[in-house]
Specification:
heterodimer; A: 116 residues; mainly beta; 4-stranded antiparallel sheet; globular; B: 111 residues; 6-stranded mixed sheet; 5-stranded antiparallel sheet; 11 strands; 59% strand
């Protein structure tokens, strides 16, 4: 049982390049999230998907797009990378329900992205 | 702007002392969660408190929630060096699954 798997772990891009961060979960969770973490800023929500087939903007969606490919996978795309997108990106999933107390947000290990 | 704000931003205490950190949020919530992050690692869930609960305990952790003040506190009793980490609160806005985090408190336990 792998939990939440993110790929790649590290990536260096040049300004203007594009890339897709992949995220997959094997816990049958219905909701998935993309966050970015910068020093002193905590985690900021980029996009989330409450259920398969839906996506919504978070706090900092500009410059990003997402795809909820199926229940397991939620990808984040940078169409034209900028230095301001240098950050650590975390994917997470959760299953909201009556047993929420025993169902915390599960995180991937993060992708460290540098844009030069 | 972020939904949650932790206070203080940084806290250093001696091992064995109690550590208290606070979280304030802006909108009505369903639940509030606390997470810990060790340096360079992902976040680990500590405890969840529902909007209709006022206090919850888990081991050395005690969480309170005051929905009238839109605030929560996390108390870690008898601190240990291993408690050194950043602590974040997370809230899900009432009516949807948007889950946002605060800016975090960096806790340092001095041996």
């Amino acid at each position: 049982n792998a939990g939440v798997t993110q790929t790649p772990k590290f990536q260096v891009l040049k300004t203007g390049q594009s890339m897709t961060l992949q995220c997959a979960q094997d816990m049958n969770h219905n909701s998935m999230y993309w966050y970015r973490q910068d020093p002193g800023m905590g985690l900021r929500l980029i996009y989330y998907s409450a259920s398969e087939g839906t996506t919504d903007k978070g706090e900092v969606p500009n410059g990003y797009n997402v795809s909820r490919l199926n229940k397991r996978e939620f990808s984040l795309r940078l169409e034209s990378a900028a230095p301001s997108q240098t950050s650590v990106y975390f994917c997470a999933s959760i299953s909201w329900g009556q047993d929420l107390g025993n169902s915390p947000l599960h995180f991937g290990n993060g992708t460290r992205l540098t844009v030069t | 702007s972020q939904q949650g704000e932790e206070d203080p931003q940084a806290l250093s205490i001696q091992e064995g002392e109690n550590a208290t950190m606070n979280c304030s949020y802006k909108t009505s919530i369903n639940n509030l969660q606390w997470y810990r992050q060790n340096s360079g690692r992902g976040l680990v869930h500590l405890i969840l408190i529902r909007s209709n609960e006022r206090e919850k305990h888990s081991g050395r952790l005690r969480v309170t929630l005051d929905t009238s003040k839109k605030s929560s506190s996390l108390l870690i009793t008898a601190s240990r060096a291993a408690d050194t980490a950043s602590y974040f609160c997370a809230t899900d806005a009432h009516g949807n699954e948007k889950l946002t985090f605060g800016t975090g408190t960096r806790l340092t336990i001095i041996p």
